[in-house]
Amino acid sequence: MSQVDLSSLDDTTLLELYSEVMEELKRRGITHSTNNPVANLAESLVTKALALKAMPESTKGYDAIDSRGRKYEIKGRRPTKSNKSRQLSFLRELDKQHFDFLAGVLFHENMTVHKACLVPHAIVLARSKYSAHGNAWLFHLRDDVWNLPGVRDVTEELKRIKGGQ
Questions:
Q1: What is the pTM of this model?
Q2: Which of 15, 24, 103, 105 is the right S-S partner for 76, CB 3.0 to 4.6 Å?
Q3: Is residue 30 a part of any domain in this protein?
Q4: Residues with Cβ < 8 Å from 61, sequence gap 6 or more?
């Protein structure tokens, strides 16, 4: 889909282009930082699609809240040909139930939404493994999660948001 032959760019130019792209995504409000865009994009799409209120970055244990006061931790993952893992980033203090739902988003390699769901905290806790090394919990967003009772598929809602397709 890209019209630019990225293979013709030297390393420095390619990294500069990446930096400029990240700045532009932040300026447009698609991401809230210039870090890896997967987490930022997931948070942006979920909050817009589900009409959630985003919390300040310093909020402990959750990223957004709905009109009923329910708390959402939002995680995204972009499996690739070279790394097919669906392990989400660390969940800190999962046993303290800082959130009610985990909003999990899987992206295609081109950063469009592949699948997304809302997983109740109890299911996340039951299916997570504690990592002493990371002092946090690990959760994999495998295909069978969408079939669990209580899990809500929100894929189509996210795909309707600009940036989700």
A1: 0.87
A2: 105
A3: no
A4: 71, 73, 92, 93, 96, 98, 99
Overall number of domains in the chain: 1
**Could you list the residue range(s) of the whole structural domain that residue 61 is in?**
36-159
Whether 2 maps to a domain, the answer reads: no
Q: Please identify which residue in the block is written with the tokens 């992206």.
A: 107
CATH number at residue 82: 3.40.210
Asked if residue 24 belongs to a domain, the reply is no
| Tens of each residue's pLDDT in the chain, 165 residues | 557 788 888 888 887 888 888 888 888 988 887 778 899 899 999 999 999 999 998 899 999 999 999 999 999 999 999 999 999 999 999 999 999 999 999 999 888 999 999 999 999 999 999 999 999 999 999 999 999 999 999 999 999 997 666
Could you tell me the two tokens for 152? 């809500």
78/31 Cα distance (integer angstroms) = 15
Q: What would you measure as the largest C-alpha separation in the chain, in angstroms?
A: 52
Task: List the beta bridge partners of residue 76.
Answer: 105
CA distance 5 to 13: 12
What's at 96, amino acid-wise? K
